[in-house]
Amino acid sequence: MSILTAEQKQIQAEATAFVAKEIIPFASKFDQSGEFHPYLLDAARESRIFAMAVPKAFGGLEYSALTQAVVLEAWGYGCAGMGTTLAASVLSMDSVLVAGTDAQKKQFFEPMVRGEIGSFGLTEPSAGSDAGNGKSTAVRVGDEYVLNGSKCWITNGGYSSVFVIYALTDPAAGMKGISAFIVEKGTPGFTIGTVDHKLGIRSSNTVELLFKDVHIPAANLLGKEGEGMKIAMKTLDMARPAIASLSLGLAQRALDECVKHLQQLYPEKAQPGQTLQFKLADMKIEIEAARQLLHHTMNLRDAGLPYSAESAMTKTNASDTAMKITTQAVQLMGSYGYTSGIAKLMRDAKIMQIYEGTNQIQRLVISRAVLAPARPAVAVQKGGN
Amino acid sequence: MSILLTEEQELIGQSARDFAKEYLDPIVVDMDHTGQYPAAVVKALAEHDFLGLFLQGEYGGAEAGYVSLVEAIENLARSSAAVASIVINHSLAAYAIQRWGAASQKKDYLPALAAGSTLGGFAVFEHGPTPGVGASALQATRVPEGWALKGTKAYVRNAGVAGLYVVLACTDPAAGAKSLAAFIVSAKASGLTVGPLAETMGLKGCPVADLVFDNVILAESALLGGIADGNAIVTETLALASVAEAAQTVGIGQAAVEHAAAYAKTRVQFGRPIASLQAIQTLLAEVATDCHLARLGLRVAAQLLDQGEPFQVEAAMVKQFLARFGSKLLIDTVQVEGGFGYSEFMPLPRLFRDIAGTTLLEAPADYPEKTIAAALLA
Fold this sequence. Notes:
Structural class of chain A: alpha+beta
Oligomer: heterodimer
Strand order of the largest sheet of chain B: 1-4-5-8
Shape of chain B: globular
CATH class of the largest domain in chain B: Mainly Alpha
Number of strands of chain B: 10
Radius of gyration of chain B: 21 Å
Distance between the termini of chain A: 47 Å
Number of domains of chain B: 3
Strand order of the largest sheet of chain A: 1-4-5-8
Number of strands of chain A: 8
Helix content of chain A: 40-55%
CATH class of the largest domain in chain A: Mainly Alpha
CATH architecture of the largest domain in chain A: Up-down Bundle
Largest sheet of chain A: 4 strands, mixed
Strand content of chain B: 15-25%
Number of helices of chain A: 11
Largest sheet of chain B: 4 strands, mixed
Number of helices of chain B: 11
CATH superfamily of the largest domain in chain B: Butyryl-CoA Dehydrogenase, subunit A, domain 3
Helix content of chain B: 40-55%
Distance between the termini of chain B: 25 Å
Number of domains of chain A: 3
Shape of chain A: globular
Structural class of chain B: alpha+beta
Radius of gyration of chain A: 22 Å
CATH architecture of the largest domain in chain B: Up-down Bundle
């Protein structure tokens, strides 16, 4: 593990304690009912953890990227569904951090400091991996924009106070015609559509957002018209490591549960054989390696260095690791794993490979970076000697 | 040995597919939601001879062999892995009785199992803390009438719906697993109760529960094989389970890859169907390859069984292969369907939850490797 400061260790301990008290005991219940967990927002209010990414100037905690990763890993360990609520709210703030004016930051961050949450709305049925293919529009009318269209799979949507919504201000310009807006809950014409029932992260609220002639002040435009895609990409660079953090929490939890179960199966002092010992060792190696890459990526961001490729790599690596390790853990625990809450870890892990850019999209980004350097000037010799 | 199917085996596979489309496809979504045991479907399975496929003709079985059995299981599992589980666990009990039963036991029990008027269950596992197939939680002691069974077997599939169970019990606490013996126990036996149904991630519709034995008195004739046969009954029957569950896994994987391929042809991103992207093609190609190789492996194990040859090592290899690649069949096909594929409104989440239950390694989870290595090093 990268070396944490005393303050970071303190925050980690607090997050772990909070998760043990407020999340772990209730995770199965909310997973089974598939309902959102408003109680958690109340429990977290005093700690202002939902404002961990908000600058101190706006009343937030202004945690460094690394510190945020440590907190999110603890939440992922407790429940990746509830962890997703926190991660998605931070994601919505990231767009405002990237492009917001002070007035917009105040508008967006104040609810967060009060313990409320936000949503990031980019995806549409026609715009998943092809994020620039959305159909929603925003038309300038006087000092307002009028929003029409819909967004899908929006995390926290039914419970958020503030939203960052991406819409076309210039449909003819395609991706370059996308702009980002702050939209507040309750704006006339803005409603919540279908609630999705998912394989995992079931306590996380995933909904459709519907916009019908929604008038928002022109002052809610983030950055300039047409800068939406640029803002979204920067936002996702910032946010992807959050998925790595949740994934790590899932993987670590799976390993811990697996070890606990295997130890119960064996009489005192007896150990599982080397086949199982080595499987556990491999799981540990993969988790540690994934954590190093995540912390390194966070250190780059905290140092103000480029980290876009690392962001894609850590998201891919940690989520693939989580999927593999949660699957192995259920398998090694046999029917016990399959009939207990452990199986939830596997269902939760699957989304980590999909949301905030599928791992295929990440590999596209990474392979571009790999192939970017000029080809070697010396011709590669063909054929045999 | 031919790895190609005979005409009869192919026909049985095809009739299982037809059966699945007619009887299983209409109920799978509801069954997954409610977890309700599909009694009417099991009756229809019996009427179509799927419950006595490999049993001998003299007991009313179709005597079609084990390759036919795994063909049927794969084709049923393509529609409903839960129904395949019901057939598999019934078959394990029937197999044990046909293989180790005395003439009178076969005559007494096999006709009803072959006809499907009685469903079978196989009770071998226990809750911890014992590594391995449990040999401590259920004790069989001699009494004047024969045997008295006290204790609990865990994770019994077809629990509560089976008419008879083949049950493994410890006959000598000091000898532990070495003293395991198998008993045929009627579901109506006095003192036998079924615990609450376990909440399983998938395979919903195939009930899983504990069997609790509160001084269940059995006649001497309930003992299946000799006391010394208990371990062979466990290893060989679980080897058959590995082969049958491999067929079930491949059936789920096949259904998933077909669904994902169809989805990829219609889902348009970047101005074209995602099926035209090589990244998607590779995912599908890898899944199809793993399905194919697993199918070949399990079919060979079933052929060995048909020929009366040892098949445990091949069964262990299939088990190990699918422990590595089985769940990946769904991890990667869900990936093809992305955010849509993660929604429970789509079919693959059910298959994802099901396949995890067909690739479990019951404790001790290292038995496939142990079996294979023991044969290599003998």
